[in-house]
Amino acid sequence: MIENESTSDNNEYLIKMENNLVNSETIDINDQNFQKMMFLYNSALKEIKTKMEILQDELKIFSDYEPIEYISTRIKKPESILEKLRRKNLAPTYGNMFQEINDIAGIRIVCNFKKDVYRLVEIIEDFQDIRILNRKDYLKKPKKSGYMSYHLIAEVPVNFSSGIMYVKVEIQLRTLGMDFWASLEHKLKYKNAKITKNESNNLVKYAKIINSIDENMLTISNRLEKEQKENLMIEAADTKEDSNKKKIFFKL
Question: What confidence tens digit (pLDDT) does each residue in 52-67 have?
Fold first, then answer.
C-alpha cells in the first residue's frame, strides 16, 4: 500500500503515497485518498490507546495506583477538517491537512484528580518513542469559557509494512468533573447558536464550582493518602519492635 521506502519524514511519505498523492492536491472527502489519510489517523489512535491501556494496567498491578478512570478516542469529521482549514485561511489540500491541523485524531484520558493529570503528563513525556510537539495547560490557566484540560500534541509512531511513520494526535487529560462540564458545555453552547450571554456566564460560573469541588476532593484524597502512609509506618515499626522482643526472649 505504501510506496515510500523511508517513512521517517512526514512530507516525503505524503508525496510518495500510492496514486501519486501530493501536497497540493485538493481534498475530496469522497475519494480513496481521503480514506487513506483517515486510515493513518485511525492507526495512530490505536497505537496511543493501546499504549495508555498498557500503562493503566501496569500502574494498577505494579504500583497499586489507578489514576485513569476511562479512555476515549475520536476522529474529526471531514466537514470539521475542511471548516478548520477555512478558518485558518489555508487551501483545502492534503498537505495542509496533514501538516497544519493537529487535532484530527484525538484521545481523551479522564482521571480522578488533578495530581493524576500531571503525573500522567510526566509519564507520557518520558515515553521514548513519542514526540511531544506542543503542550497547553488549561488547568492552571482555563479558557475564557471556563474550559479546563491539559493538551498535548504528540507525534505517534505507526508501524506499516514499509517502515514507521509519525502521525499527530491530540492528547487531552482532564478530571471527571472537567469532563462532565466540557461534554455538556459542548452540547449546550457549540451546538446551539441561541444560547444567551447570561447563560454563557453561568457556564463559566459552573466551571469554577466544579474546579472548587475538584480541589476539595483532592484535599480529602491527599489527607487519606497521608494517613494511610503514616499507619503503614506505624505498623512496620510495631512489627519490628515485636520481632526484636521475640529475639530477646529466645536468647534468654
Answer: 999 999 999 999 999 9
pLDDT digits (tens, 9 = 90+) for 113-145: 999 999 999 999 999 999 999 999 999 999 999
Q: Give the residues across from 111 on adjacent strands.
A: 68, 175
Record the pTM: 0.82
Closest CA to 33 of 74, 1, 4, 81: 1
Alpha-carbon distance 93 to 80, whole Å? Answer: 14
What single string gives the DSSP state of each residue in 48-100?
HHHHHHHHHHHHHHHH----EEEEEEEE--HHHHHHHHHHTT---BHHHHHHH
Report domain extents, the chain. Answer: 10-248
At 2, the pLDDT band (50, 70, 90 cuts) reads very low
Q: Which CATH superfamily is domain 10-248 in?
A: Beta Polymerase, domain 2 (3.30.460.10)
